[in-house]
Amino acid sequence: MRKSHCHIISPVCILLGLLVSPAALSVPLCQPQWHNAITLQESEIRLENGADTFLVKPNGQLYYGVHKVKLNDQQLAVLASYHQMMIEDLPYVLSHSQFIDQELCDRVARRQKKEHEIQSLIPALRQWQSVTLE
Questions:
Q1: What is the pLDDT of residue 23?
Q2: Angstrom distance (rounded) from CA 72 to CA 122
Q3: What are phi and psi of 50, to 5 degrees?
Q4: What is the pLDDT of residue 27?
Q5: Average pLDDT, integer, range 93-112
Q6: What is the largest CA-CA distance in the chain?
Q7: Where are the beta strands (DSSP E) in 23-117?
Q8: Which one-letter DSSP state was computed for residue 133?
Q9: In terms of C-beta density within 10 A (0-12 exposed, 13-18 middle, 19 or more buried), how is residue 64 classed?
Q10: What number of helices (H) and strands (E) belong to the chain?
Q11: Is 100 helix (H, G, I), strand (E, B) or coil?
Q12: pLDDT, position 24
């Protein structure tokens, strides 16, 4: 009968186990760089970009401070979609802020794509982004 060399726990066996464990071999799946602040309060999404504050309502309506921003139907639809995405994403992102998994990377990539769409359609949010990937 063949005996394994690591039946007796020794520092060498522990070190070998760590070197070949999946956690030791893993590298971050993505590296999100967070920008600006997003908060959810009473079903409204608040976007803070330095001194500028925008509010997005569930229907896609945008406010700059207290001023309603005039938007066309396409702009309202993209902001309503972004609002729904943030309602679903924010709890997950907050709960996984210390552990980057594939789901977080996928969510961040979708958010970044949606924010690029918003930047191209809505001049008031041309500089808005919550995250970039490196």
A1: 47
A2: 10
A3: 65, -125
A4: 56
A5: 88
A6: 80
A7: 32-34, 37-41, 44-49, 52-56, 62-64, 67-69
A8: E
A9: middle
A10: 4, 7
A11: coil
A12: 42
Amino acid at 53: T
Would you put residue 70 in left (φ > 0), alpha (ψ -120 to 50) or beta? beta
- What tens digit of pLDDT does each residue of 13-68 get? 344 344 444 444 455 588 888 888 899 988 999 999 888 999 999 999 999 989 99
Residue 125 has pLDDT above 80, yes or no: yes
With CA atoms as reference, report the closest residue to 35 among 118, 130, 132: 130
In this predicted structure, what is the pLDDT of residue 21? 42
Mean confidence (pLDDT) of the chain: 82
Contact partners, residue 101, CB within 8 Å, separation at least 6: 29
Angle between helices 102-121 and 73-95 (to 10 degrees): 150
Run of H or E including 128: none
Query: Are 71 and 123 within 8 A, CB to CB?
Result: no
The per-residue DSSP string of 22-43 comes to HHHH---S--EEE-SEEEEETT
Q: Which residue has the tokens 């958010």?
A: 111
